Amino acid sequence: MRPTWADPTQQFLELRDRLYRLLDESFVPEQAERAPDFSPPVDILATDDRVVILVEAPGMSREQIAVSVDDNVVTIRGERADEDGGQYYLRERPVGSFSRSFSLAWHLDPDTIDARLEDGLLEVSVRRRAGTREIEVSGTQEQ
Asked: What gap in Å lies between CA 51 and CA 114, rounded to an integer?
């Protein structure tokens, strides 16, 4: 096995880059003012008769969230307001509005949609319609 030697120049450049990143993140308030895009994490699951969408919405009230169904597309909109009003030096909790739309493969019954916000978790549930149905054939009978 051959020994490998570390390149001191490369190590110095990596250390310099880490130091610049640390200084940018710690002492420059302009960096903290830029909030990341707001797109809350979502889980979608299907049971035998329903589709359930779970959205993380901590710190939001039910008045800040709107849910709609059009055909098989479920749209969830919300807005988290900036209430603190100070100058941030670090900001990891996003503010602003979001909109998420999900085109689902199942036939949905929009009259059965239910949305519940509890402990920062929004649960949207909608009943699945049966994809097939029996159709009675009409007409005259031949023998």
From this structure: 11
